[in-house]
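Lab notebook, design round three. We kept the backbone fixed and only want residue identities now. Task for the bench partner: fill in a sequence for the structure below.
Input structure tokens:
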């Protein structure tokens, strides 16, 4: 708390000021009484009560707010509780005594910046894991098998989370386990997993052994038998598909989002053109093995690819000061997306199986701070991802903001598509007068109806942000193309997947 009263903030926002007014003690104390002060909706809905308490000096007990804080809070209420962006304000700078950033020992780097010696070590670790007995928990076979086929335990269970709030936490834990397995190889105890920045071409080194392919040492089910060799598309196809699915734009859009569900995307009605859309587009672009959730993790590129998604998750967390529990919760829209709140606050849902038991013992809380809990940090890529995109939103969560219609851009949402009917991953092409104008991909197992996680989120939607001129003056339609064409050919009948509809919305801006 500042010793000298200073000027209140005239136009405070949740992200830049208000959430920083509550201390850990305040939050712990009130959370135990059912009022979570790290949550925007809660503070907004209870703002009059909170104001009464802080203005009278009775809260926080024995440590009342200085008058400028109280006035800042009142200004916020008067302005209708704006959520704002994460641009730091003077108040925030004053409130935050920036602690020296802790240093991690596992620094994961852009694979194209590794020296020959460093690359040789990564190679040695992969070769060592591949050579291990398939029953060894540190073998490449066992580690890759955690993601889907053949599953973990007897009878096999499938834990991986996609298109759900646990997606980022689960994959972060998975990478820690994988990196530990790399370190189990003699001579590799200091190795870290590098990443492939997917906005740049597939690095040459990943096209060479032992990263180019992997041969299954035994049957894993789903028609994938001993001797199956993983496959990818050629370079030109991968590059073209990454453009087709707009992967770079989806990443850039995700990094500008202030709310947890918007960054991840898709879940709780959030737009399907941010991180999970980029991830799905990436899998389908790399093909063939990577496009099939049943076996994707057996292609060694999977781990360099996923290391990059984890880097982006951490990068976003840092930009939002969402690197501890309260910071992360302050970005979650609890009313709209209660499950995201619950996975961090309800002990039964904090589990990240199979990583919540020994040796990892990780859960959603212990993965939040990559540096302090996991000893993992990332070095920026050689060419840093540009944050050139403007924040544009059509979400209704910011009802208290003043919006302006963006006449040049529209969001086209394809919705009501039942993915359980579609065998495996698929593409959705938006068409105007029969011509494809934009595409998105969806990554899922071959028998989605057998996956609990998929069944819970059966009906999916896709978002295409496009210039108005591109969608007007013609008839819009949707073409769903399964990746595996052996069932119904290259066009999945609309009738069979619940007759998805197309909705065009104007984009709003709060700038
Ligand atoms: Cu993935």
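Proposed sequence:
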């Amino acid at each position: 708390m500042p010793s000298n009263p200073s000027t209140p903030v005239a136009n405070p926002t949740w992200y830049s000021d208000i959430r920083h007014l509550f201390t850990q003690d305040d939050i712990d104390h009130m959370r135990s009484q059912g009022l979570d002060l790290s949550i925007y909706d809660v503070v907004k809905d209870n703002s009059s009560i909170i104001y009464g308490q802080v203005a009278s000096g009775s809260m926080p007990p024995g440590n009342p707010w200085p008058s400028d804080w109280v006035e800042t809070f009142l200004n916020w209420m008067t302005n209708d509780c704006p959520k704002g962006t994460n641009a730091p304000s003077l108040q925030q700078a004053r409130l935050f005594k920036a602690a020296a950033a802790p240093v991690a020992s596992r620094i994961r780097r852009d694979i194209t910046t590794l020296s020959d010696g460093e690359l040789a070590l990564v190679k040695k670790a992969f070769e060592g894991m591949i050579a291990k007995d398939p029953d060894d928990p540190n073998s490449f076979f066992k580690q890759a098998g955690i993601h889907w086929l053949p599953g973990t335990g007897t009878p096999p269970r499938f834990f991986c989370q996609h298109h759900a709030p646990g997606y980022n936490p689960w994959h972060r834990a998975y990478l820690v386990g994988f990196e530990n397995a790399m370190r189990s190889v003699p001579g590799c105890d200091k190795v870290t997993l590098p990443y492939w920045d997917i906005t740049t071409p597939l690095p040459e080194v990943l096209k060479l052994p032992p990263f180019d392919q992997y041969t299954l040492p035994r049957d894993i089910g789903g028609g994938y038998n001993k001797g199956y060799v993983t496959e990818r598309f050629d370079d030109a196809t991968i590059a073209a598909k990454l453009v087709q699915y707009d992967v770079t734009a989806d990443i850039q859009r995700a990094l500008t989002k202030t709310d947890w569900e918007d960054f991840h995307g898709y879940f709780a009605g959030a737009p399907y053109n941010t991180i999970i859309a980029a991830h799905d587009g990436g899998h389908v672009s790399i093909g063939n093995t990577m496009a099939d959730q049943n076996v994707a993790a057996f292609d060694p590129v999977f781990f360099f690819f996923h290391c990059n998604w984890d880097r982006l998750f951490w990068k976003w967390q840092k930009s939002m000061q969402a690197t501890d529990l309260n910071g992360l919760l302050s970005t979650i829209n609890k009313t709209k997306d209660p499950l995201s709140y619950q996975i961090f606050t309800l002990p039964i849902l904090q589990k990240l199986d199979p990583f919540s038991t020994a040796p990892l013992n990780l859960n959603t809380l212990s993965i939040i701070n990559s540096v302090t809990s996991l000893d993992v940090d990332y070095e920026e890529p050689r060419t840093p991802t540009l944050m050139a995109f403007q924040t544009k939103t059509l979400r209704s969560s910011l009802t208290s903001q003043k919006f302006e219609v963006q006449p040049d851009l529209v969001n086209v949402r394809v919705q009501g598509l039942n993915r359980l009917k579609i065998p495996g991953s698929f593409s959705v092409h938006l068409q105007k007068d029969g011509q494809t104008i934009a595409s998105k991909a969806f990554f899922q197992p071959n028998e989605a109806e057998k996956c609990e996680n998929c069944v819970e989120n059966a009906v999916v939607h896709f978002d295409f942000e496009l210039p108005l001129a591109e969608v007007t003056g013609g008839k819009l339609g949707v073409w769903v193309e399964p990746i595996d064409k052996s069932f119904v050919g290259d066009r999945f009948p609309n009738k069979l997947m619940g007759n998805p509809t197309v909705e065009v919305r104007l984009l709003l801006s709060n700038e």
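Keep this in mind before ordering anything: Residues 255 and 266 are 15 Å apart (CA to CA).
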